[in-house]
Design brief:
By secondary structure, the chain is an alpha+beta fold. 33% of the residues lie in helices and 27% in strands. Bound molecules: zinc ion.
């Protein structure tokens, strides 16, 4: 798809946000899109209603809380085959030509289409899709990530799943957006055991956040250019330590609060845990992406929903996350 192709489908663009001062805020524009889609797209309204009725359980490990959601609507996404051949042979569901007939978009700074997620985990839950069919890749879109978090404001968080650890369309670049205050990780992020390793160096604070079964790297800064340069350096350091020529496996959250961007990166070593592929009693159909790493475990079978324990969650996290000693090596390169 070429950049201009969405222009050939003007009926898809329900509204546009270009950042002009004095215009409607992005959060309001997206809220209006969400209402429009609930009223005019029946399948979405049904999926949203079904998600609103999803069961939740809270499980705790020490002072850390995790949530388990039973959401059968996520079955397609949680069990998607993501091998290169399957991806090559299926029509891309994020390309504007293949969107359901009733789906509309907010055109964001002429570069992204903001869509309601048709299989929501949150209310609202947006997918922010590049106008071009180009691969999922963080480094090229760091500026857009920071701009999006800024434009949406503190009521929302932007998140990203790497092409090999959670993205269900690794061939089409996209971010996702959820409301702030929905993920258990946010409390840990604010109040948890944070080890600040360098503060105010080039205006960036950087450190490690310790969580049950996994560690995350956090960054804060108020100057987008320096933060972007720091993130590029981090991605490079992760790639070197992890010995990966492709983008190092990671999930990421980004939000802006009181003029500062806050980012949280979960370095990964594996997409799905072994239990995903087991048969019988040992089987657990959980596919960890950013949401799961953020402490909200989505289960698509009642059995998995009921049997999830803090110990099982930690075991899954440990298996798919980069071990602490490797994270330390990355941190040492960033000092
Ligand atoms: Zn596409």
């Amino acid at each position: 798809m070429k950049t201009s192709d969405y222009l050939l489908m003007p009926d898809r663009i329900w509204s546009e946000y270009d950042g002009a001062p004095g215009g409607t805020s992005l959060a309001s524009t997206c809220g209006e899109l969400f209402s429009q889609q609930l009223f005019n797209w029946q399948e979405f309204a049904v999926a949203h209603m079904s998600m609103k009725g999803a069961w939740f359980r809270e499980i705790t490990s020490g002072q850390h809380t995790m949530l388990v959601q039973f959401n059968q609507g996520r079955t397609v996404s949680a069990t998607a085959a993501l091998d290169a051949e399957t991806i090559r042979n299926r029509p891309c569901f994020l390309c504007v030509y293949h969107l359901p007939a009733a789906q509309k978009a907010v055109l964001y700074r002429k570069t992204f289409l903001i869509l309601v997620n048709p299989y929501p985990i949150f209310s609202p839950h947006y997918t922010v899709v590049h106008v071009n069919h180009e691969p999922q890749e963080l480094e090229r879109h760091l500026g857009a990530l920071l701009a999006l978090a800024h434009d949406l404001g503190p009521a929302f968080m932007v998140f990203y799943n790497g092409p090999r650890c959670g993205a269900s369309a690794p061939d089409h670049h996209h971010f996702q957006v959820c409301p702030s205050g929905m993920l258990p990780i946010e409390k840990d992020w604010e109040e948890g055991e944070r080890e600040i390793l360098c503060a105010d160096r080039e205006d960036v604070s950087f450190g490690v956040l310790r969580l049950p079964g996994r560690n995350a790297l956090f960054m804060e800064g108020s100057v987008p250019e320096t933060l972007e340069a720091f993130l590029k350096r981090l991605i490079g350091a992760m790639g070197e330590v992890m010995g990966s020529a492709e983008e190092p496996m990671l999930n990421l959250f980004c939000k802006q609060k009181e003029g500062r961007w806050q980012l949280l990166v979960f370095p990964r070593r594996k997409h799905r845990p072994d239990a995903y592929y087991r048969e019988g009693k040992g089987s657990v159909l959980v596919t960890p992406g950013a949401v799961e790493m953020g402490g909200l475990l989505i289960t698509i079978r009642e059995d998995d929903f009921l049997k999830m324990t803090p110990a099982l969650a930690e075991e899954i996290y440990r298996e798919v996350s980069l071990p602490p000693e490797v994270i330390e090596e990355i941190v040492n390169r960033m000092k």
